[in-house]
Design goal:
9-stranded mixed beta sheet; single chain; alpha/beta; globular; Rossmann fold
Length: 339
């Protein structure tokens, strides 16, 4: 009986040790899944954020500051370069700024499968960046597809945000309603069907030295265009960027990729150019019905490229919004809005 008792204790001890090793392994993996390495490239600070098997390249500014953090999300066909002027302004005002080259744009974050470009995945990238920098809350700004990612993040993780600013793109349900029922929006969105086709969009945009892609950048300077081309000339970059359309529009998504785009309570600013070639007025007017928290809209007499066409107005509005809904607007202990 004594021998049996000793053997049982040995078995129990062995099980405890195994469970401890497994638990420590899981904890180690969780702590090291998202790591950050900051480097200087051509006198500019970048962060390489490891997210599982992928690495996102992020422009960073003001990381030595003690102000709140702002994450900036670019759209198509641009990169984090679109934000460089705004990053300088925000850093000078004491903020910490992170602008990733999103999934498909970073060389080491170009998944093979279309489904991996869903908003579920791209919004989880933003969460991973925030976690890698140990951000409990932050401000989020997005343009074009970056704004779509922002709306997804607002829907999935609203408690992580101080404020949300969308450039050009309304709430996803507002856009979907206009896309279904408004002739003007349907006319503006015809290009989406083309971008959903396999192979042909890549051939069209890259033809003759990417001339058709260059024509999209109507408000951009030569230096900015070259910065974008340096990315799209890379193997698989253009296909990966177009896969955002293929993954999110006109396809049957996995149930696990579903996002409930509901009522928004995060303080929201929508900036829209009334000459936007892609977004008509209908969806902008519908946007308010999905706003239950503080909401402001700035309409400008410009097109889709808000940062390039009206930098002063856009940057001023973003800064005012961030200042208004900073930490002092919230209860420090509970993270609830002050009454």
């Amino acid at each position: 009986m004594l021998v049996d008792l000793i053997q049982n204790h040995r078995k129990s001890f062995k099980i405890i040790i195994i469970n401890l090793i497994v638990s420590l392994s899981i904890l180690f993996a969780m702590n090291n899944q998202n790591s950050v390495k900051e480097v200087i490239v051509n006198d500019e600070w970048f962060a390489e954020v490891q997210i599982g098997e992928y690495t996102l390249n992020c422009r960073i500014a003001g990381m030595e500051n003690d102000g709140e953090t702002i994450i900036l999300l670019h759209g198509f066909p641009e990169t984090s370069y679109m934000w460089i002027n705004l990053m300088k302004v925000l850093a000078e005002k004491g903020y910490r700024v992170i602008a990733p080259d999103q999934r498909g744009y970073s060389p080491n974050a170009r998944p093979t499968f279309i489904k991996e470009y869903s908003l579920k995945h791209t919004s989880s990238d933003v969460l991973a960046i925030a976690n890698a920098y140990n951000l409990q809350r932050f401000h989020l700004v997005g343009h074009d597809w970056g704004a779509s990612v922002g709306w997804a993040f607002v829907a999935e993780y609203p408690e992580r945000l101080y404020s949300w600013t969308s450039l050009s793109i309304p709430h996803m349900k507002a856009f979907q309603e206009a896309y279904r029922s408004d002739f003007d929006q349907q006319r503006r969105s015809k290009y989406i069907g083309f971008f959903n086709m396999p192979f042909f969009p890549e051939l069209y945009l890259s033809f003759n030295g990417y001339n058709n892609l260059k024509n999209i950048w109507r408000a951009h300077g030569d230096e900015e265009k070259e910065a974008y081309l340096s990315v799209f000339r890379q193997s698989g970059a253009l296909r990966s960027a177009l896969n955002w359309y293929r993954a999110n529009i006109g396809r049957r998504r996995n149930p696990s990729d579903h996002i409930n785009f509901g009522i928004v309570r995060v303080p929201t600013l929508l900036i829209w150019g009334n000459m936007d070639m892609a977004i008509g007025r209908k969806s902008i007017d519908l946007n308010e019905q999905y706003m239950a928290g503080p909401y402001n809209i700035l309409e400008l007499y410009v097109g889709h490229w808000l940062i390039q066409e009206s930098f002063d107005d856009v940057s001023k509005a973003i800064i005012n919004h961030i200042k208004t809904y900073s930490l002092v607007y919230y209860e420090p202990q509970l993270g609830k809005r002050k009454k």
